Amino acid sequence: MKFGVFDHLDSSGRPLGEFYEDRLRLIESYERIGLHCYHTAEHHATPLGMCPSPSVLHSAIAQRTKKILFGPLVYTLALYHPLRLAEEICMLDHMSGGRFQVGVGRGISPFELGYYGVDAKESQEIYHEAYAVVMKAFSSESLTHEGTHFNFRGVPIMMHPVQKPHPPLWYGVGNVDGVAWCVRNNVNAVVNGPLARVREITDRYRAEWAAAGPAADKMPLVGTTRHVVIAPTDAEALAIAKRAYARWWASFMFLWKRHDSAPIFAAFPEDFDLVYKAGLAAVGSPATVRRLLESEIAQSGVSYLLCRFAFGDLSYAESQRSVDLFAAEVMPHFTRSELAVA
Q: 95, 118 in Cβ contact below 8 A?
């Protein structure tokens, strides 16, 4: 069982310079307690994402850390020129000594895509072609590609990633139809949502991986995300989480409400009590969080849990306390033998 962090880097209301420095300090803590990987979202023109240029933040992370893996989950490929992105990924992989992770996706928000002049109806096709170009660039000395959206002829490729054939890949799986591609391409999968949906995807991934033939212990990670707040008592943790979640949810819904619309995917409830009852947050004392996570991991079948330790208007001190308590009183409980998948 591995633990990591997923971070929207949603606006907390504090000055941006202070906001970024607090995040980098937290990432140093994530490394210190032995978390597997730090993943960031990419969003534009919304308080949900104060990291619209993931490579900029990740270049700082490469300098502030030595061991922890890190990367975007995901790069919104429909918004990138793939040749430039391939070069940025190579730079980050070298700057980090081969720790960079590459999440790929088309972008979930039609509004954000539209602000960059991308038609949401074409974004899936652009994403697939951009992905193909990036993969070619990683393994080529000279790039040639003829497509609908991108064309290259004999472009010299001057850099390649440290990790061969490329950094590990990550993908956000929305339904079981996305599992087959992950299995074929050895891609780590992360799914959001209630336990039943997560379990459907983890079961499918294991079944298709077994059918494909590789050893079970070589299977990529399959995980889910949860908001996590830990305090000395359940009451204190719940009060903090409810306050911070309200701001996070407002950021999450900002563009949808601005455009008088609703997400096409299953959204998080506005009422934090419903979030908690649905198992979408692990909040409470260390003992309570241990119990909640043990039950959720067993029910969902995940091999990886991505915690959201910083969200909404949580202060640095509140997030750091959750991290410290998680390291001291929660993580040690989860050994491989205790968490065999049901």
A: no
Q: Give pairs for 312-316: CB < 8 Å, separation 24+.
A: 312/10, 312/12, 312/243, 312/244, 312/245, 312/246, 312/247, 312/248, 312/251, 313/12, 313/13, 313/243, 313/244, 313/247, 314/12, 314/229, 314/240, 314/244, 316/22, 316/25, 316/26
pLDDT at residue 240 tops 90 = yes
8 A C-beta contact, residue 19 and residue 319 = no
Which amino acid is it at 165?
P
Contacts of 179 (CB under 8 A, 6+ apart): 173, 189, 201, 204, 205, 208
Dihedral of the alpha carbons of 118, 119, 122, 125, in degrees to the nearest 10 = 20
Residue 340 CA: distances (Å) to CA of 1, 37, 280, 295: 9, 21, 21, 12
State pLDDT tens for residues 129-169: 999 999 999 999 999 999 999 999 999 999 999 999 999 99
pTM over 0.90: yes
DSSP 109-174: -HHHHHHTT--HHHHHHHHHHHHHHHHHHHH-SEEEEE-SS-EEEEEE-----SSSSSSPEEEE--
| Amino acid occupying residue 154 | G
